[in-house]
Structure prediction request, 106 residues.
Amino acid sequence: MLNLSRPDWRERIRTGKSLLPDIAPVDVGLAARAVAYFDALRIPDVLGTPLLRDACGDWFRDIVAMLFGSLDPETKTRLIREVFLLVPKRTAKPRWVQHSCWSLFF
Prediction:
């Protein structure tokens, strides 16, 4: 399993740094495919149906890359099985989660 802890999270939040760990995805190609797929999805219930590429922050793409790139090519097991995101209201969380889950099937 990957260590995703951030003992310095308080300082990182204060300085605006990412809370994601400084580890690269295990399968970089798979991570890139997941992000490309995610970016191409549209938000149907927003005026103009923008692409997630345009509507979502880089921090969420980092999460998608890390989650879907955590597939160990030798054992075919995911090194990250769960993600807990604490995000404020009115940020299209359900839509992002829905699209992220669809990324599993590409």
User: Anything to note?
Assistant: Helices lie at 9-15, 28-40, 52-55, 58-68, 93-103. The two ends are 24 Å apart (CA to CA).
